[in-house]
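User: I've been trying to design a sequence by hand for this structure and keep getting stuck. Would you show me what you'd pick, starting by listing the structure so we're on the same page?

Assistant: Good idea, let's start from the same input. This is the structure you sent:
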């Protein structure tokens, strides 16, 4: 495992809470942030996909970021999700994040547009040149329909502050190549984390940590300390939670918020369309999975 760990070992791509009328609930969002930091997280990713960023405005993103930074910025790293499918929009979000004073930005490849590698390099470079904040690139072809190729990663090394990658391609062996380029690689897939670590990854940007932060932090610490058997034991114990949170069609923000409701952190599981909150049967299945992992 690399010793270069720019954002800590465990971050959660945190959910955003909403009022009954659909507006952002800043108090409840700050409560989520505090819960996560109190349960093993070194940092938080705000307004990523799990934070329902495709449905929030620039103004809302700023309010959410300020609320989270105000609540936990003295105790944890705060990373702003600035990835969109519009370069100008992403630049605006990155500039806003710098004004709030957070610790970095997460930049996913543009979704739906399917730019080629030249387009990806243009997009990433425009954002990198708009901010001095450390940048974590994010490759998740299942959501974007585009893979960041190694030559694009190599090209982005000309920016010293493009420091890390959230890797969710499932191409575990590429991690070693990214590490050789100088990137700190974070798993973007809870269930594959040990595989990424084995190839030189440094940590995890999680969704399941909404419910299992302490356990995931212990797993990452065990691995870093060389106790791979203990890391595997913890990982294996969490498989029912991985499956319950991430292994169903209606997953992500929906399952994270339902888990927070089951834990008593939230009093609802509201999401914005096109997402639909888990129904009672789905909540029951989630409860069973979390309980099987010892989380309830």
């Amino acid at each position: 495992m690399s010793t270069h760990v720019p954002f800590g070992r465990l971050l959660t791509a945190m959910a955003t809470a909403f009022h009954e009328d659909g507006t952002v609930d800043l108090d409840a969002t700050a409560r989520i942030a505090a819960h996560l930091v109190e349960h093993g997280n070194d940092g938080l990713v705000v307004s990523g996909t799990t934070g329902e960023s495709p449905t929030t405005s620039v103004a809302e993103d700023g309010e959410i970021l300020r609320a989270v930074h105000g609540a936990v910025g003295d105790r944890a790293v705060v990373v702003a999700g600035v990835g969109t499918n519009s370069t100008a929009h992403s630049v605006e979000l990155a500039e806003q994040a710098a004004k709030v004073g957070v610790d970095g930005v997460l930049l996913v490849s543009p979704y739906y547009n399917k730019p080629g590698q030249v387009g990806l390099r243009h997009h990433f470079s425009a954002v990198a040149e708009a901010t001095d904040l450390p940048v974590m690139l994010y490759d998740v072809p299942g959501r974007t329909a585009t893979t960041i190729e190694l030559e694009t990663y190599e090209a982005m090394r000309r920016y010293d502050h493009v420091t890390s990658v959230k890797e969710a391609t499932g191409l575990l062996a590429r991690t070693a190549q990214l590490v050789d380029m100088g990137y700190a690689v974070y798993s973007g897939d809870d269930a594959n984390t040990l595989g990424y670590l084995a190839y030189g990854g440094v940590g995890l940007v999680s969704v399941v940590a909404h419910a299992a932060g302490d356990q995931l932090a212990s797993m990452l610490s065990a691995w870093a300390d060389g106790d791979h058997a203990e890391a595997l034991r913890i990982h294996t114990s969490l498989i029912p939670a991985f499956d319950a949170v991430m292994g169903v069609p209606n997953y992500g923000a929906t399952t994270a918020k339902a888990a927070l409701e089951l834990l008593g952190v939230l009093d609802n599981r509201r999401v914005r369309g096109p997402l639909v909150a888990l129904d009672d049967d789905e909540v029951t299945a989630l409860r069973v999975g979390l309980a099987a992992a010892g989380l309830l």
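That's my pick for every position. To get oriented when you compare it with your attempt: The first strand starts at residue 10 and ends at 13. The first helix runs from residue 26 to 38.
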